[in-house]
Amino acid sequence: MLSQLTITNFGLIDRIVMDFDEGLNILTGETGAGKSILIDALRIALGDRMNASQVRDPAKACIIEAAFTLDNEEIRALEVLEDFRDDDDPTLIIQRRYMPDGKNKIKINGSPVTVGQLKEIGDYLIDFHGPHDHQRLLSSHFHLSMLDRLINFGTTKQQYQHLYTEYMELEKRIEDLEHLAQASEREIDLLSYQVKELEQVSFKETDYEQLQQEQSKIDNAEKLNLTINELIDLLEGGDTGTSENIRKSFSCMRTLNQIDAGTESLMDSLTQLQELNDQTVSDLKSYAANITYSQEAAEAVNTQMDMYINVLRKYGPTLSDANKYYLESKQKLESIINREHDDAELRKELKTLEKTLATRADEMSQLRKKVARTLIKTVEKELKELGILNARFDIKFERGMYQLQGLDKVVFYISPN
Prior knowledge:
- The chain is of the alpha+beta class.
- The protein contains 13 helices and 8 strands.
- The strands form 2 sheets. It has a 6-stranded antiparallel sheet, covered by helices on one side. Strands 7-8 form a two-stranded antiparallel ribbon.
- Strand 1 (2-10) and strand 2 (13-19) form a beta hairpin.
- Helix 5 runs antiparallel to helix 13 (339-385).
- The mean pLDDT is 85.
């Protein structure tokens, strides 16, 4: 149902926001109060043509926004609304903007759409009744949905639509395999080469980061050695090294302790400092011993890094992008290689599913034909009571292709005399 209508800079209206409740809503007012303008604005929101003469102030944008609450499951299930549905929010917001430069902007739930799409969706949302309006009753496009409103399908229709979705997905997969069957040997060779090239590297970020660190050490091995030797010399070298200075400090510390017993804890701190200094020197020497690389090891690291650079340049820019490309290429290659087996399996699955789908479609058809017979009698009876004695009403059924609503095509026919 229509829950809110917002109109800005349209006709006589500067800005108005109207909220609608469930049930009957009535707008009253004297001639010229603007009732028709509201209807015109709503028509434009649903796809009618808009022109510059309807804009109140040509220097400003004209905005019409209509909010609908899709509380009808049949409406929510429509294919035309598939891209705009939100399972958590039943609200559908249509906005049309007529800009000062004459350009039109149309959005549904924030997504741009064409006037054609808007009209198709709008036909399902509101039925305008008036002496000169083309009503939905005269359009066979809506006859099936009108009939279905009178039918209690139970779970049959829901089961059919679930099966239909699976059926269409299988058809799409079979179609994709048919396209793959046209792949040339050249494409297969290219995919094989790309997969093999990508498999030469690890896609774990930690592995790549570790390799970068290794290369950095190799490239800076000489600088590392000079820096480490300088550090070791500062910590334990000769009479000026930290080790020697700490050793000399013990004599002064013992004198301090003899004078003031309360400073004995400082002796412990000095001892810890000496141990930490010695451990640091030892760790630096161990580190220095491990940064010596053989020519073979250095070449291996550089070769691996070159592979990463090549992969990221061709399939990146990030490792995640390269991994995604690898998975897609591998899947496509496997699909091409296994397409004959997969195609046979999918067609077998499609055939089995189609039998169940046809059964549910037939059940829906029987329910529709049963209700149609009752509806024909009811309509003719009502017409006779209105004095149209020779009126004839009929509902014709045709078998069509599988659609979301079944196999039936329904058309209402009437002869008033």
